[in-house]
């Protein structure tokens, strides 16, 4: 049932808080910085001694994997590569050291992700999954894994499943980081305490989206959009561009902020707005420079940021403020 919402996608976006609750339920003791993922218990020894993790996915799941790479490399100190299912299955994947392949998929049936998983199995690698659909082919064929518990996703364009994938990736980061000793307990507790509060933060945020509605009305007439972001928010820019083109048929592209100047900036003019995902973090100043570059090309600028300061208003045409949370959790908020 759509429960009063105009369509399933909107309903599923509004389920984000519930999804975070369901995905984390019974899986963490926040103040101790402890995570328990039952489905990974049997392979925990193998996971903590991994040299490399290869994440495979398609579409939004691939972008969630890209965010996961930033999470795992920054907080769990493990080298991560992220591969598109449609590439991994056909290419020569060189093996070095102890590698596991982690498939991320909402449906658990995406053909390219499944073929990649089977290829990894044939190569003798440990295969893991973050799968929403219980009993799906990928859920059955992986050696071990984590179910998202996001509930069925009816809309084709993934929203709440991405939120749950990012949430599982946070849990996985804390689990691996604590197991391999690269993440100290204090930081782990700070992350998990933030995660515990996240549903309330999301609920409050989604209780009034009038600013998003008015900005959307202003931008509806443009035929193009350029999304930019850095680090955790670079793949969120990709995801934003994918959602926009898939659901509105507006041409949208995404670049990591620093890449804009290497050619694509040529597209920008007064008819080509830039949507910058620039929360107040360690690359905020870098993002501000990118936004200034876009302004110099007369591009309208819409900035998604976390702090109500006036500096940003001077350079941006429009600002959407989102709540500030722990840096590893911030992409969950900007994704919404
Ligand atoms: C698609 C959907 O084609 O499949 C995307 O439009 C989705 O939203 C992608 O991310 C991958 O699906 P899955 O089920 O493997 O996560």
Describe the structure.
The chain is α/β, with parallel strands linked by helices and 336 residues long. The protein has 14 helices and twelve strands. Helix 2 packs antiparallel against helix 9 (185-206) and helix 4 (59-75) packs antiparallel against helix 11 (233-248). 6-O-phosphono-beta-D-glucopyranose (BG6) binds next to helix 4.
Report the end-to-end length measured between terminal Cα atoms.
22 Å
- Let me know the number of strands: 12
Counting helices, strands and paired strands, the structural category is alpha/beta
Give unreliable regions as ranges.
none
What is the gyration radius calculated from CA atoms?
A: 20 Å
Put simply, the count of helices is 14
Largest sheet: 5 strands, parallel
Bound molecules: 6-O-phosphono-beta-D-glucopyranose
**Order of H and E elements:** HHEEHEHEHEHEHEHHHEHEEHEHEH
Strand numbers in spatial order across the main sheet: 4-3-5-6-7
Fraction in helix: 40-55%
Overall geometry comes to: globular
Mean pLDDT: 96
Q: Indicate the proportion of strand residues.
A: 15-25%
